[in-house]
Amino acid sequence: MRREKESFHRICVTKAIANILILTAYIVWAVPCSYMNAYYFPQPFNAFFGAVIGWGPYLMSGPFTQICLAVNRAIAISYPHWFDRNHRIPYTKLTLYGLWTFALLISLPSFIDGCSYLFYPESIAWGTMDTPCSRTLTDLFLTGVITMSIFSFTVNITNILKLLKMSMRMGNSISEDASTARKKRRRAMFVQCIIQDCTHASDCFINNYLYTFYSAQWFQFLCGAVSGLFIILVDGLLMTVLHRKLRNVNRGASRVSTVHSIHVS
């Protein structure tokens, strides 16, 4: 499954790059603006960093890469021999390049006057403009994110059910240690898909709708800035912790399998 791991690695790197771009926008723009309590660059700069925070990289950090990971797992489970072939076409690279291009194109409408996603230093938060164009884009964006999250979640649950079915078919043909390792992988996958598929959809809802329930500055700050940073933190920690555990589980299962095969021979 070397090719599967290569595809997974590329998708994770793409997610990490998108998260770094978002964090950079916070550091370069939001922090100085909050300190000075005014825009220190022209309005187009605010719209540009808003597009980074709320559009292109945001989509690559969340919904787009989540779908890629879910589909990558589905292909690995349903068509494992496909990964062992020497494909002339780098499907994963082309898919990621295409998604980056699409994400950047989607960001273009946010540069139109009255349609931008901006940082407001008075509330220390990001938010949409109170215009028909901005509200329409927000509704379309939220609908798209929720739809993609549901699709990714459905594919991931299907993957888990397939793995469970395969494990039941194998029955007693594998050792107890290998069976335990499989259960840990399924449990980790389930936790990961639940959290990652829901975080960005929840953040969109909080940032675009929940913040309107209370006008206090601290509440606006929590909904508009802390929420966005928190999902990036959770996403990064989840990828790091779970996959470190999975690597340890896989190594343990490999050692058990090797020892068992030597003993049998």
From TrEMBL:
Source taxon at top rank: Eukaryota
Keywords: Membrane, Transmembrane, Transmembrane helix
Transmembrane segments: 12-32, 52-75, 96-120, 140-161, 217-242
Residues of the 7TM GPCR serpentine receptor class x (Srx) domain: 3-243
Record-given protein name: G_PROTEIN_RECEP_F1_2 domain-containing protein
